[in-house]
Amino acid sequence: MGNEIIIGERLRQARLAKNISIDELQQKTKIQKRYLEAIEKGDFEALPGTYYVRSFIRQYAQVVDEDGDFLVDIYDEKASFEPEGKRAEPETVQGSRKALHEGKTRDKKTRDYLPVALLGIIAFMIVGVIAYVAWQDRNSDPVIGQTATSMEVDGSVTTEQDSSTNEESSTSSQTETSSSEEDEMEIAMTDSTQSQATIQVTDAEEPLELEFTAKNGRAWVGVSVNGDYSLQETLEAGQNESTTIPEGTENFVVTLGASANIDLKANDKEVDFDDPDYEALQKNLNFEVTYQD
Question: Which residue has the higher pLDDT, 140 or 5?
């Protein structure tokens, strides 16, 4: 079942890439429209027989510049879509580019101003010592003067501590407000048909990670970014698979064969694509994503 769905979807994507309609394809291949639609759905049992399946695949593939012999070998299970080595996961970047750049800028400024700050502290200490010695020389009553000075210093320290406490409280309040106002990612299905649905994801954090879990039975999943598949897997019941969408990607397609057997999450949040008006069969989920600043 999985190979038929993959073959049909690959031919359909190639047709769409060449902007060829089903009617135009019927004229070019001389194959009835209902058979062409059955091929794209992976419903090869609707075709007259295995001979016609192989012949129709080759004719369809020739028009859309696909390798028909290779697709027939896939159908006959003499070849496989599986790559030799599993695709490496994209490297996860912690934090946005803007945050990393700002962090580096702050570190550089700190290093540049550190020597100046140290010199300022030393100069302040020297001036303080000189002022203290001069004050001692002018003071005729050391005991009373010391007491007064002590009181003034204590008052100054208390004021500085109160000011520091107020600043820390203000900073903490601003941090809590900022955290509470941070937008949370939202996922919604905006429209749906038997074979298509649009999924809008807003305020997503990068990178966006998709996780598929098979339930009840076998199911095929595919993730297409800019026309190239980053994931193609046939999952058995209880098996899961994940993939990371490249940063900055705003549109991609998730294709599900036997969609009733799949649970899908985006950044650990459930993606609800069930539509009670339609039977859960093969379905393309067209994702539209906006990211947090």
Answer: 5
Second-level CATH architecture of 2-75: Orthogonal Bundle (1.10)
| Segment among 90-99, 149-158, 210-219, 228-237 with least mean pLDDT | 149-158
User: What pLDDT is recorded for position 187?
Assistant: 79
> Which CATH entry fits the domain spanning 186-291: 2.30.30, 3.10.20, 3.30.479, 2.60.40?
2.60.40
Q: Residue 174 carries which side chain, given as an amino acid letter?
A: Q
Contacts by 60-65 with C-beta closer than 8 Å and gap 24+? 60/11, 60/25, 60/29, 60/31, 60/36, 61/11, 61/14, 63/15, 63/20, 63/25, 63/28, 63/29, 64/11, 64/14, 64/15, 64/17, 64/18, 64/20, 64/25, 65/14, 65/18
